[in-house]
Amino acid sequence: SDAGSQKDRVVTEEEWLEKWEMGNIGFHKEEGHPLLQKYLDVLLNGKNGLRIFFPLCGKAVEMKWLADMGHSVVGVEISEQAVKDFFSEHGLPYCEEPVPEISGAKMFQSTSGNISLYCCSIYDLSSSIVGKFDGVWDRGALVAVNPCDRQRYASLMISLVEKNSSYLLVTVSYDPNKHKGPPFYVPESEIKSLFG
Ligand code: SAH
């Protein structure tokens, strides 16, 4: 099937903020994702102390999980409510500071230092601000990006990863003519052309 009926759909940042305000966050899961458990070895490659990136992170519980394993987690999320909820729901003390390179952005960091969540649009980030990552957990991220922004998103993600990194991507398979998304349907062929 083709993604034609979804390609012009746009969800604005305001609409995402509103979803958080209204508690309309069916995408959030309290249980760690089974596919992360299944492919954890692929992500970590037997290494310790990796830098793992969570694009469009929401309040994903897997961030706490990987941090507890000794990795350093960086996320980006436009909703400040989501970021604050993440820390408070896990009982993690944090501090917040402005991000000098991005006007209006804030960085929330656990006091222990191993979880840093940027509250801004992902499109404001670059490797000069956040560095490069050894691993990426992309669940509810590429599929949440507006179809018209996919190329920009993929190019940015490629610029944020180290040469020997692992990128775990979760997509959803369904008939795009029956649902408007998000999550959007991203065909396998498009993933290949976006990421190579
Ligand atoms: N990955 C998370 C959340 C998925 S929903 C999980 O697995 O639970 C997508 C999230 O992206 C929402 O929380 C939304 O607020 C956020 N978001 C949408 N557009 C964004 C953007 N341009 N930059 C950063 N975050 C964004």
TrEMBL record:
PROSITE patterns: SAM_MT_TPMT (PS51585). It catalyses: S-adenosyl-L-methionine + a thiopurine = S-adenosyl-L-homocysteine + a thiopurine S-methylether. It comes from the Eukaryota. S-adenosyl-L-methionine binds at residues 16-27, 56, 77, 121-122, 139. Its EC number is 2.1.1.67. Keywords: Cytoplasm, Methyltransferase, S-adenosyl-L-methionine, Transferase. Its main location: cytoplasm. GO terms for molecular function: thiopurine S-methyltransferase activity. One of its GO terms (biological process) is methylation. SUPFAM superfamilies: S-adenosyl-L-methionine-dependent methyltransferases (SSF53335). Pfam families: TPMT. One of its GO terms (cellular component) is cytoplasm. The keyword Transcription regulation does not apply. It is found in: Cytoplasm. The keyword Thylakoid does not apply. Belongs to the class I-like SAM-binding methyltransferase superfamily. TPMT family. This is thiopurine S-methyltransferase. It comes from Quiscalus mexicanus.
